[in-house]
Amino acid sequence: MAGGTWTTQNKVRPGVYVRFQGEAAPSGAVGERGIVALPLKLSWGPAKKVLELNAGEPVFEQLGYELTDEALLLVREAFKRAKKVLLYRLNEGAKAAATHKQLKVKARFGGVRGNDIQLVVQTNVNDNTKVDVITKVGGRTVDNQTVNLAEQLTANAWVEFEGTGAIEANAGLPLTGGDDGNVVNADHVSFHEAIAVHDFHTVALPSTDAALCSVYAVFVKRMREEEGKKIQAVMAQYPTANHEGIISVKNGVKLADGTVLNAAQATVWVAAATAASAMNESLTYSAYEDAVDADVRMTNTQVEEALRKGEFVFVHHLGHAVVEQDINTLTAYTPDKGQPFSKNRVIRVLDGIANDMKRIFETTYVGKTNNNEEGRQLFRAECIAYLDQLERLNAIQPFDAQTDVLVAKGEASDSILIQLNVQPVDAVEKIYMKVKVK
After folding, report:
1. Which among 75, 126, 155, 186 would be 20 to 30 A from 273, CA to CA?
2. What predicted TM-score, i.e. pTM, was given to this entire model?
3. Which residue did the predictor score with more confidence, 363 or 202?
């Protein structure tokens, strides 16, 4: 007797033909958060490139400093909340260099950090026909090569070599001429072009330049409305943006070690905290790590005025700097976008749904599922399973799978139309208590 599998019922020989088919199951899950994009003027590192930095990983070789150094203050603040930082160095700068007889040395990257590089050449203790060429950064040995001739030297993470012949000993040759250079608005536009192809949740702009804020606002609106990437930008003192995708930081904080971060610098923590917050979390009254006060304390009237303008405010509370209210700059409400759209927790839910459904659809269904009733019901089941997860997370109110999830054939033969009715859950922020005294 014959056997095997079958696709159509066209077998010739008698036999048993078996086809196994698994029951379709939802494949989507709620996406993880915590990625912030950060454009900075730095003193070391590759320029005009997006550098992926993960929390807990060393950064000395990539950025030229330890995370605890003052030069990386804003990167350090970002990692107080972010899981990943997409760092972009805006400036190129001039490379430090030095010449020692026949040997030329040049820093790998431009910037003033190159001026902290020193080259030491000494006779090798085991073979006096060779020399040890030691590269030091701020007194710290980062490379040691033992060679006979200059042409045997290979570039390391810090410097590049050029020259031929024997190398004379030197107690310490400092590199000089390193400079950070300047940053212009065009550099930020280049950043937008580079970061647009990456996945992230927020972008910080540590600046109060209104013209630059406007450039970022246009970028975010384009990403949200044309590119389908629901991101938010955090900038300082720009409440006139009037958009759910723009967060405007009013003031900064004072850290326990005495460091004062102004509003522009505080945008980095706000962007990181916003990116890392889950759909069911609000930053209202969330404490800024290691911050003991707001940099500028505000009166009750001033705080209320700032909130009405859509500003993100830090206030002093029990020895900490905390977020007064987790809001964005949307203040001019419309029938399509009412007051709930000004709350960042609500936006995280709506943006999360948009981003996750796009990811699920592109990964599992595009080009793989038939646009017939069976195929559309598969995707409808996916939508219901996804919303069930959000309901269990208390990100949305209970929904009716029969009436709140509709998937229909679109106008074109290859399109479908989805309608989801959801009500995001907000956090309790105002408690009105009535006490009756007997």
Report:
1. 186
2. 0.88
3. 202
